[in-house]
Amino acid sequence: MALRTLSAKNAAALDEELMSAGAFSIDQLMELAGLSVSQAVFKLQPISKGNRILVACGPGNNGGDGLVAARHLFHYGYLPTVYYPKQSKNDLYQRLKKQLEDLKVPFTDDFHCALKQSDHIVDAIFGFSFSGEVREPFSKVIEALRDAQVPVLAVDAPSSWNIEDGPPDSGPGKGFMPGALISLTAPKPLVKWFKGRHFLGGRFLGPELAMKYELDVPEYQGLDQIVEVPVEDSKL
Amino acid sequence: MALRTLSAKNAAALDEELMSAGAFSIDQLMELAGLSVSQAVFKLQPISKGNRILVACGPGNNGGDGLVAARHLFHYGYLPTVYYPKQSKNDLYQRLKKQLEDLKVPFTDDFHCALKQSDHIVDAIFGFSFSGEVREPFSKVIEALRDAQVPVLAVDAPSSWNIEDGPPDSGPGKGFMPGALISLTAPKPLVKWFKGRHFLGGRFLGPELAMKYELDVPEYQGLDQIVEVPVEDSKL
């Protein structure tokens, strides 16, 4: 059975509803989202196979999830490095950054150099609110992700993919197919074109909201904040 | 080797520092604290042994940790019931309550009745800022916890215990020895008198702050947000 997907428009509406009627703060939701991302990295990249994780963060919420994930990865024993070239002045992101600085997690300005010293990459550049063109510095970064020799986990969407229509026909993301994807709260329509391992995260969606947005709450196991979705289940 | 303890005064100072210089929000810290509590329940009370968890919440932060734990327990498949007789008007607690209401987690006014229908209790009444006398309705509740036939997990402190001096010589908490305790961030001096299973939670303390407050960061395993501390390690 395929998991139902959530359009970009409905993903924004659900986030909004979680934070208004649902009474969640963005701090809470981002903490849980980033925790999910960190757990997917833990499954994909055991520390014994290489503990250097490069987390590429975009300017918005997707980047914020990456910042939270990097902090949890540090506590698990990884050596995260963060690439965060377009830093928001938003208080929350500034605080998430400070939390990493206090742990001495390095921030890098040179993605290509950092890439060569990494065992695994987290693509937290663009999420479900992405549309339009990729601009610098991210177009070069996405090209590097596309050509990377180490595994990439994309958060919510492979960056540069259209949320509804999947991989772009041109531009830096043409041919970019990360090895793994973690969908937050629910898969977006782009999963139809995705060919790697697929995880779902965000174990805070209640039955009522799931019903309202016509989503499936998958069977998480034990204390896991993520669940791996069999490939056939993530197709439309 | 005994884990070093954190006095009530230093616990307050550390919390304050995490939220000022450390740039954490209380939403974040409480989410992670409550998540730790829920993981300790999961270890102590497998769902197959009885999934009815009564969470007794006090008016302050300890109660807030309980509210977060109840939400995570719901998502794990437990049936939490919340006793929360002195509800703060504070926005955060109101929101945590609303999140539970949206999941249809029941709130009860009758602790004694709820106790009879529970398999496990979480004592989130008073934490490290407790001092002085226990007042109603909590004195009767603590007497009931003391006499309970089902296991009790205390959050940060067995409620009514003095943070520095341990179990009280008189009053409702005299003789109250819960079967398990989860210390958040670091054990408080009262652990010297504690005889049950002891967990530590709060996997967000970095090496610098641990050094500043002369605390130990124990070896958490895998993705665990808690670690069980051998009994000899929690003695002074």
Automatic annotation (TrEMBL), chains A, B:
Q: Name one GO molecular function term.
A: nucleotide binding
Q: Which UniProt keywords apply?
A: Cytoplasm, Isomerase, Metal-binding, Mitochondrion, NAD, NADP, Nucleotide-binding, Potassium
Its localization reads: Cytoplasm; Mitochondrion
Does the keyword Metal-binding feature in the UniProt annotation?
Answer: yes
GO cellular component terms? mitochondrion
**Sorted alphabetically, which Pfam families does this protein's record hold?**
YjeF_N
User: Which residues are listed for (6S)-NADPHX binding in this entry?
Assistant: N61, N62, G63, G64, D65, G127, F128, S129, F130, S131, G132, E133, D156
User: Cofactor stoichiometry and binding?
Assistant: Binds 1 potassium ion per subunit.
Recorded catalytic activity of this chain's protein: (6R)-NADHX = (6S)-NADHX; (6R)-NADPHX = (6S)-NADPHX
SUPFAM superfamilies given in the database record: YjeF N-terminal domain-like
Q: Quick one: which residues bind K(+)?
A: N62, D123, S159
Instruction: Name the EC number(s).
Output: 5.1.99.6
InterPro entries per record: YjeF_N_dom, YjeF_N_dom_sf, YJEFN_prot_NAXE-like
Please state every residue range assigned to the domain named YjeF N-terminal: 11-217
Which family, according to the similarity comment?
Belongs to the NnrE/AIBP family.
The record's function comment reads: Catalyzes the epimerization of the S- and R-forms of NAD(P)HX, a damaged form of NAD(P)H that is a result of enzymatic or heat-dependent hydration. This is a prerequisite for the S-specific NAD(P)H-hydrate dehydratase to allow the repair of both epimers of NAD(P)HX.
Protein name as catalogued: NAD(P)H-hydrate epimerase
Organism of this sequence: Massariosphaeria phaeospora
